[in-house]
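Q: I'm writing a short explainer about Bifunctional folylpolyglutamate synthase/dihydrofolate synthase for a general audience and would like to include a description of its predicted shape. Could you first generate the structure from this sequence?
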Amino acid sequence: MTATQVSEAAQEIEKLLALHPKGFDLSLDRITRLLAALGNPQERLPPVIHVAGTNGKGSVTAFSRAILEAAGLSVHVHTSPHLVNWHERYRLGVKGGKGALVGDRVLADAVRRVAEANAGQHITVFEILTAVTFLLFAEHPADVAIIEVGLGGRFDATNVIARPAVSVIMPISLDHQSYLGDRVELIAAEKAGIMKRGCPVVIGHQEEDGVRDVLVATAERLGCPMSVYGQDFMAHEEFGRLVFQDERGLADLPLPRLPGRHQYANAAAAIRAVRAAGFDIPEAAVEKGLAGVEWPGRLQRLGGGKLSHHGPPGAEIWVDGGHNPGAGQVIAEAMASFEEREPRPLFLIIGMINTKDPVGYFKAFLDLAEQVFTVPIHGSDSGLDPVALAEDAGAVGFETTATSSVAEALGIIAELVEEDPVPPRILIGGSLYLVGDVLSENGTPPR
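A: Of course. Here's the predicted structure. Afterward I'll give you a sentence or two in plain language.
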């Protein structure tokens, strides 16, 4: 399939987008009805690792998959949203090797069958696509399934799993306030909704004590065997290695392949989650998983491609889809660590959608980045106007320039640093939609 061709599955999903409302409608009634019409495939899944949180969901999912696959297990993975192609949401496990994104005809067939079972009744496309997840994962045997929550937890369409092998709650911060609440404690209560009575729970690193208290109280009320980061397990860097510790003792591991110090806690949560789910993974497989893990669009360095050629020669270009203040903080910390290792002037190219907090995001980079360039987002109808976004960055204290595209912004940066002997570091981010646009235009889509 060439870049100009539309896949069969994408055509089927576009039909659904024309019929059904966009966005989220938090309730379990519609998904429960639809799954019953399909014969309740969610009851025929392999052991499920169910992952929620504001930030870090994708990373812990990627680490868990890498570790399990390194041990020779077959792993299904559901994530959302996708970056470039709908197929990215569904990775089917392969015994003894790495899984692969679902094939186009298989996905198209599953979408058609789910749509037929829905029989035109009121539903969101996300709920249909979640039902597709359960159908695919039930029909293709695997050792384990990792399922990422779409939004929130309690009423998310994935939350029909009655007995997960483990529920994982990653860092929680303000995001989707109109759906989940305007305080982190309220958001934590929504995300704690994926916990099931008596089922193991892993609570990842939390910045807010109030968040941790809500999660711990919920797990205790439900009688869930519980592991809390910083209390029952932890990780830190020592002499260029990752030291993981839980009640079993210390493990001396390689640093994760995913860059940024925040990934130490994410890797630790994955190790603990895999163990809590009942998988006794040898340390050699954990080492292999951490060293080989991949997670496109999250602090991913562009190693070339059509788009990157617009930038300055020798520039270090990174893309990251983090889009809320909490994500901005960890990405800024990663950029600061890069600066410690190899000083370079930092420029930001940012696009965001109108449900986010641009000011909170930009504040994380104050005194770190030299200038902000804002761009439109072509993959969403909710993209912020670059001029308005530039005003938000300017309110924080940045010198800003609104541009019409990432290519234009890269070209301007190239002119600005033409006489600078040190090539710059450039971060393109603020939205997964923008990252998807960039990877597609660059010719380096996820596989």
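A: For your explainer, you could say: Residues 233 and 249 are 10 Å apart (CA to CA).
Q: Perfect, that's easy to follow.
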